[in-house]
Design a protein that fits this description.
The structure holds two protein chains of two kinds. Chain A has eleven helices and ten strands. Chain A has a six-stranded mixed beta sheet with strand order 6-7-8-3-9-10, sandwiched between helices. By secondary structure, chain B is an all-alpha fold. Chain B has two domains: about 220 residues, no CATH class; about 260 residues, Orthogonal Bundle (ABC transporter involved in vitamin B12 uptake, BtuC), CATH 1.10.3470. Helices cover about 65% and strands about 0% of the residues of chain B. Chain B is built from 21 helices and six strands. In chain B, the strands form three sheets. Chain B has a two-stranded antiparallel ribbon with strand order 1-2. The longest helix of chain B is centred in the first third of the chain and has 28 residues. Chain B is globular. Classes of the chains: A alpha/beta, B mainly alpha. The interface between A and B is large, with 42 and 29 residues.
């Protein structure tokens, strides 16, 4: 990272002491993280650490039991639609496109908030309506080009290959014109080439001024992508800092990985290979 | 059905289809019944007097003759989608034979009536059945190929292309008009006056279904639909013209115009329901209540003597108010959707439908007339012409009720336009997004609650509008027209026709409201036959008769290797059967 990118930036998103309790289970305990403008923050941790729960709290899908989430100093409501309107967009761990809509329509749904046509205009399709529709389509096509799905706009989303579905989900999220993009395991199930393409895509998104939070299991991916990394273990932030500090922190190695790094790296490599193998079979 | 292909070796495909065609020809010539029924020869030309009037539309022999000749010709002529066409012809003829055989046997006192008695032989229906089976077996022996593609751009210059497309579309829609007219009138009015209407109509359906499936198999249907999509405005004009031309065809009698207008009302209502169910994915089991609300509001505002309000507003205003009131109730019913999903919502709507039915039965608020209903609603009058009188247009005396038919055509056209425009808008996409994945829709910033209530509101408004016409056409507003069964039938119409499409809703509504009309003399069996037909259609065409582009893709079912899923399944079943076959036999051999 160049020094210029590390200059003091405004905090966009701030979660303060977020606690989420389901029945007797504390999924998140006093989690505090912050995201500065134009940065990429990584969120890692073992399964069940509460990463996705934190995303759900940030996007209003869950109402935190305690604590607050602030966007540029303003508290966010616990309503996903309003959170999206405030400028936070997300993708889902297990891809949740609108499977029976076309690629273009999926992105157009993402434009929902940025369009103004009401029911009456929608019934009559007047000139203003048609112009809005044209503009939305143009914008949607731009986004599809941005993520690299140019020629697929009339495909039904469910028929896309896995990697393209992930990219479409990102395009759909970008269509809401967010300030903050939350990506939940954007490279799960991808091969190394696709992973690299995803990494470049996230850099390009960051370069447009959008701040990004990424959940990922692939530590190599996270350490080569993020400006700062938070490690979540059993609902608590264990370590937070630059990729280098996190990577070398013995607590992380022990708590998150449970073993010395060399062994784990071998395991990770093995897992990646197994994944590739499985993909190759599929 | 494709599993049949294992029964006949591919080399025998041609002989089989040729023989099937010949059997059809033979069946058309042979006598079908060995007796005269009390009211004359069954069905019309079914006895030895075939050649009296062989070429009437309802003459199923003529249809069989046509299918047989076509099958023989197609067997020896290269044709795209050949197997599909032959299979369609086979099934069509088979249904004609089956309907004839069942009816003659049941009316004539057993199998003797269709085989031999009194020294006569009457093997017609048996031969037709056999021909159908042989033809289907032969057609499927070589496997069913993909639907052939036709080029949508004919001619070199754009003007030439446009002109050819226009001509094709006009011819196609004229064909549709002829088919609609023929379907309406096939078999006659039915009931006590003419007891054979049912079987003749069913046999006719075999013909029409076979013909349409054959046209589909050769790729024509898809070609036409592509052309009409490319020239949308022109298609709409031609379609409207065809709808307005219906009264000038054979179907232009008072009775058929009334039936057509009733179908129109239900088609309009089904399109409204299609917004709620097909687009927004909200199951509504009490939808007919909105039709009822529209009907009662219009009845009370139109100067019926029995109405306690006694207002007399012009029809357009009354219809508008009816739509708005129904819409308000729609929003009220929709509001629980903020809290309940899926099955629970279905129960809420079911309860609402029942509340409406019971309160209108008990005349709560003195607005529905209770069991007396509200009779004597004056006819719609526009430009000084009451709609319940005959009408002369271009020197042709058109029967009573034809003006209501025209009114319905206009209303259906309006409702279609509303549906199509909404579907292709921000609102429509939000509905579909909610149907597809509610959480993801919320993550896109869609206020799912508002969007769902809007779906209920718009759907109810359209039903209310249809209800206003309905009640004027009937002249009476009675609670008994708005029972639970009607809601179910409307829902069935939407699902049967194909969710989320206009032609689907119209076709579904037409079928579901024409069939009971046509099957009157089956009385007790009518609902049974009807239910069976539904089960079969849903089994063999779960995407509906006219699925939308997406559901078509969904059910097309290609596996990774590009084989249709059906074929793979078939292979699996075969292997399974084989394994089962071998397993028990092995120990036996061991014992021997």
């Amino acid at each position: 990272m160049s020094a210029a990118q590390h200059r003091a930036a405004e905090t966009v998103l701030q979660a303060n002491g977020v606690t989420m309790i389901f029945g007797g289970l504390t999924a998140l305990n006093e989690v505090t993280i912050s995201l500065e403008e134009g940065r990429i923050v990584g969120l890692i941790g073992p399964n069940g650490a509460g990463k996705t729960t934190l995303f759900n709290c940030l996007t209003g899908l869950y109402t935190p039991t305690r604590g607050s989430v602030r966007m540029r100093g303003k508290e966010l409501p616990s309503d996903p639609a309003k959170v999206t309107a405030a400028g936070i967009a997300r993708t889902f761990q297990n891809i949740r496109l609108f499977p029976n809509m076309t690629v273009l329509e999926n992105v157009l749904v993402g434009r929902h908030l940025r369009m103004r046509q009401g029911p009456i205009a929608s019934v009559f399709h007047g000139p203003v309506f048609r112009k809005g529709e044209r503009d939305a389509k143009e914008k949607a096509r731009e986004l599809l080009t941005f993520v690299g799905l140019t020629s697929l706009e009339d495909e039904v989303a469910r028929n896309l290959p896995y990697g393209d579905q992930r990219r479409l989900e990102i395009a759909r999220a970008l269509a809401t014109e967010p300030d903050v993009l939350l990506l939940d395991e954007p490279t799960a199930g991808m091969n190394p080439q696709e992973t690299e393409a995803a990494r470049q895509l996230i850099f390009r998104i960051r370069d447009t001024g959008i701040s990004v939070v990424v959940i990922e299991h692939d530590t190599k991916f996270i350490f080569s992508l993020c400006d700062t990394v938070s490690v979540l273990v059993q609902g608590e932030v264990l370590v937070e800092g630059s990729p280098e500090t996190v990577r070398d922190d013995p607590r992380v190695i022990e708590a998150y990985l449970g073993k010395p790094r060399e062994e784990v790296e071998a395991e990770v490599a093995e897992a990646a290979e197994a994944l590739e193998h499985r993909e190759g079979n599929a | 059905m494709s599993k049949l292909s294992a029964w006949v070796p591919a080399a025998l495909a041609r002989p089989f289809t040729a023989v099937g065609g010949v059997l059809f020809l033979l069946a058309a010539m042979l006598p079908w019944a060995t007796f005269l029924l009390n009211d004359g020869a069954y069905p019309e030309k079914a006895t030895l007097q075939f050649f009296d009037a062989p070429f009437e539309l309802t003459g199923f022999r003529w249809h069989l003759l046509l299918f047989g000749a076509a099958a023989i010709v197609i067997t020896f002529v290269p044709l795209p989608g050949k197997a599909r066409v032959l299979r369609a012809l086979g099934w069509g003829g088979l249904i004609i034979g089956l309907v004839g055989a069942i009816f003659i046997a049941s009316e004539g006192g057993g199998l003797g009536a269709i085989t031999a008695a009194d020294g006569n032989t009457a093997l017609g229906s048996i031969v037709a059945l056999l021909g159908g089976i042989v033809l289907v077996l032969g057609a499927t022996a070589t496997g069913i190929e993909d639907l052939p593609h036709w080029p949508t751009r004919l001619g070199s210059s754009p003007i030439q292309q446009r002109l050819t497309a226009y001509v094709v579309l006009i011819v196609a829609f004229a064909g549709v008009l002829w088919l609609v007219s023929a379907t309406l009138t096939a078999g006659g009015i039915g009931g006590a006056a003419f007891p054979y209407a049912g079987p003749i109509f069913l046999a006719y359906l075999g013909f029409a279904g076979g013909l349409l499936a054959a046209l589909h198999g050769v790729g024509l249907a898809r070609w036409i639909s592509q052309l009409s999509e490319e020239h949308r405005a022109f298609s709409i004009v031609v379609l409207l013209a065809c709808a307005c031309a219906l009264p000038f065809t054979e179907a232009g009698s008072q009775y058929w115009m009334q039936v057509a207008a009733t179908i129109g009302v239900y088609a309009a209502t089904a399109i409204g329901l299609n917004i709620v169910v097909g687009l927004a994915g909200l199951l509504d089991l009490g939808y007919v209540a909105f039709l009822g609300i529209g009907a009662f509001v219009a009845a009370n505002l139109s100067g019926a003597a029995a109405s306690s309000l006694g207002w007399d507003l012009p029809f357009p205003l009354a219809a508008l108010i009816a739509a708005v009131v129904a819409g308000i109730f729609g929003a009220i019913v929709g509001s629980p959707t903020l809290r309940v999903r899926g099955d629970y919502l279905a129960i809420v709507t079911l309860a609402f439908g029942e509340i409406f039915y019971r309160s209108s039965q008990n005349n709560i608020g003195d607005l529905t007339g209770g069991s007396n209903s509200i009779p004597g609603i004056p006819p719609v009058t526009m430009f000084g012409t009451p709609f319940n009188e005959p009408f002369t247009l271009f020197g042709t005396e058109l029967p009573t009720g034809v003006l209501y038919y025209f009114l319905i055509v206009v209303i259906v056209a309006i409702i279609m336009a509303v549906f199509a425009n909404l579907k292709n808008s921000r609102i429509g996409r939000a509905w579909i997004a909610v149907r597809e994945d509610e959480d993801a829709a919320r993550a896109m910033g869609i206020r799912t609650g508002q969007v769902k209530i809007l779906a209920f509101l718009v759907g109810a408004m359209l039903a209310g509008l249809a209800g206003a016409v309905f009640v004027h056409k009937l002249g009476t507003a009675s609670y008994s027209s708005f029972q639970f069964l009607e809601s179910v039938t409307l829902l069935a119409a939407v699902i049967l026709g194909g969710m989320g499409t206009i032609p689907g809703a119209v076709l579904g509504a037409s079928l579901l409201f024409v069939l009971p009309e046509k099957l009157r003399e089956f009385d007790d069996y009518r609902l049974l036959v009807f239910g069976l037909a539904l089960v079969f259609i849903m089994r063999f065409r779960p995407q509906g008769l006219v699925p939308d582009r997406i559901r078509r893709a969904e059910f097309a079912g290609e596996t990774a290797e590009g084989k249709p899923i059906e074929e793979v399944e078939e292979q699996v079943v075969l292997e399974h059967e084989q394994a089962e076959h071998e397993a028990p036999s092995a120990p036996k051999e061991g014992k021997a």
